[in-house]
Amino acid sequence: MKGRMAQGASIPARSPFQRVQISSARWIAGLLVLTAVAWLVALAGLLAVANRVHDDVPVLLSQKLPLLASHPDLIFGGDSRTLYQVDPRLAAQLAGKAEGSAVNIAYDAGEPLALLAVMRREPDLFRNAHVVVSVSPFVFNDGARQAVFNPQDAVARLGVFGQMTTYLPLRVSTLIRFIREAFAARLESQRPTSRPVQSLAASGLFFLDISQPEDRLPAAIGAHPHYANWNIAGAKARFETAALCDMVNLARKVTVVIPPWAPRYDRAKDPEWKEKDNRYVSLVTVVGRACGFDVVNIMSVPGVTQANYADEMHVNISGIPIYTRYLMSRLAP
Fold first, then answer.
1. 272: which residues sit within 8 A by CB, 6+ positions away?
2. Distance between CA atoms of 26 and 32, rounded to whole angstroms?
3. Is pLDDT above 60 for 4?
4. pLDDT tens per residue, range 209-244
5. C-alpha angle 120-226-46 in degrees, rounded to nearest 5
6. What is the Cα 125 distance to its own chain's centre?
7. What is the Cα–Cα distance from 39 to 42, expressed in whole angstroms?
8. Continuous segment of H or E residues that includes residue 140
């Protein structure tokens, strides 16, 4: 009886091939763990170095700074919705001033922290100027973690631990972009500031001369990446609104502009967009009242049609004079 029970409870011996398979699986698993650990350590090291060399003035903004040599009275800054939409030469004409009295130093994905860094670096150029800076939802939204929607200066302020816990594992491309941009900005900062401005048309204006086909446009703004995982109560909003506040004492006047989206989109039919946009506008408005900067919320521009838009958020070349004229009318004292 005991023999039969012992025989029934016995475990079949593994074959040599099975033992090799198990051993190989363990080695592979161990190697993957070691590789992952080594990769994380290497990434942390790169981020630590990038944080040390990081310059708050990115390459795209640094390349436009020679425009300030004219000591302009009106300085347009911010993101792409100023870069591609505001004609500073027309703005100067509308203000009755000479060419060069208004310049456009906005750049793609521009953030307030970067403009603040320039104002602190060149205080004499801003002290008597009216600074008009555009902002977009992604600047304040911690939920927008794609590389293109992450202001580099805000990322730098998170530190290595914050950067890795925020963007790994799904947004490693955001950290790679931050590392690349940090070194590029440092190299750019070493170049002479007196070099001539290259490839800058109309005092800093760039324009979009094509329009996306309708089937390439987002169906609804509420689901736009700017509003992804909506959270304007985090680090981005804290850093960037503080930067807007700090600008007030460095310029004659500061105006924050919230530009419109294309007229094809209707807030009344997109409650998700309406709710998020109202919160974002409210955030900027409340901070403006507390810190002393004006807020111009442009929900639509009279005379602008869908044909004047290159995509869901930027006018094309035909819309530039219409948008610039309307913006100047809102800036008038």
1. 220, 222, 223, 227
2. 10
3. no
4. 888 888 889 999 999 999 999 999 999 999 999 999
5. 60
6. 25
7. 5
8. none
Give the other-Cβ count within 10 Å of 117's Cβ. 18
Pairing label, strands 102-104, 74-77: parallel
List alpha helices for 105-234, DSSP H: 112-121, 123-126, 152-156, 159-167, 172-189
Q: Structure pTM?
A: 0.87
Provide long-range contacts, Cβ within 8 A and 24+ apart, for 265-273.
265/220, 265/221, 265/312, 267/299, 270/220, 270/221, 270/222, 271/222, 272/220, 272/222, 272/223, 272/227, 273/220, 273/221, 273/222, 273/224, 273/227
What single-letter amino acid sits at 7? Answer: Q
Which pLDDT value is given to residue 193? 55
Q: Which two tokens stand for residue 142?
A: 């911690």
Residue-by-residue DSSP string for 211-253: ---GGGS-S-STTSGGGTT---SSHHHHHHHHHHHHHGGGSSE
Q: What percent of the chain shows pLDDT beyond 70?
A: 87
